[in-house]
Design brief:
Keywords: Signal. Strand 8 and strand 9 form a beta hairpin. The chain has a single domain, classed as Lipocalin (Beta Barrel), CATH 2.40.128.110. The longest helix has 17 residues. It contains two helices and eleven strands; from the N terminus they run αββββββαβββββ. The termini are far apart.
């Protein structure tokens, strides 16, 4: 009798866990940044980040699925140098007046246990959409003591060929086509 009671309780617990609902996390803008790095004539690295972004992540840890939808304001670029910011926003590079936002929508999450290790999706940048894979450098969920809610996030990276998106300024001068993108992201459970 005792064994069947334990088996029934275990089955009920497993059934409840298997029916876990997807959870929505709102991107927390003060802990989320999209940055890029590109070599400058093989001597140093130019860096910039986008300060305005918004989006959501839907995560179902039990089903090992998820969806992310993040939009970046291209005019919020900050390289640390105003003249370079203006050049980056100009028609020669990002053309922020014509293409004011970039958007990443990922719907294929890869997990290792409870940790997200990769997100595959589509990046729309400079009016063009192409597949992009974000690889997790780390990922964690925790109970935030300040907001009293679960927060999930991590650091992700991808390498893009910028010419694929129509951003080809300086290629004929030797600027590289490859750009490293690093995403720092945290989302608060809603």
């Amino acid at each position: 009798m005792k064994i069947s009671l334990i088996a029934t309780a275990a089955a009920a617990l497993l059934a409840t866990a298997a029916q876990a609902e997807p959870v929505t996390y709102k991107i927390e803008p003060t802990h989320t940044y999209a940055t890029f790095e590109i070599m400058h004539f093989g001597t140093s690295t130019n860096r910039g980040r986008f300060d305005k972004k918004e989006g959501t992540v839907v995560l179902d840890k039990a089903a090992k699925t998820g969806k992310v939808d993040v939009t970046i304001d291209m005019s919020s670029i900050d390289s640390g140098y105003d003249a370079f910011n203006k050049h980056l926003m100009s028609a020669e590079i990002f053309d922020a007046a014509k293409y004011p936002t970039a958007q990443f929508v990922g719907d294929k999450f890869t997990f290792n246990g409870d940790k997200v290790t990769q997100i595959d999706g589509q990046l729309t940048l400079h009016g063009q959409t192409h597949p992009v894979t974000l690889k997790a450098l780390n990922f964690n969920c925790y109970m935030n003591p300040m907001v009293k809610r679960e927060v999930c996030g991590g650091d992700f990276e991808a390498n893009l060929m910028r010419s694929q998106f129509g951003v080809d300024y300086g290629l004929n001068w030797g600027f590289p086509d490859n750009v490293r993108v690093v995403i720092q992201v945290e989302g608060v459970k809603q």
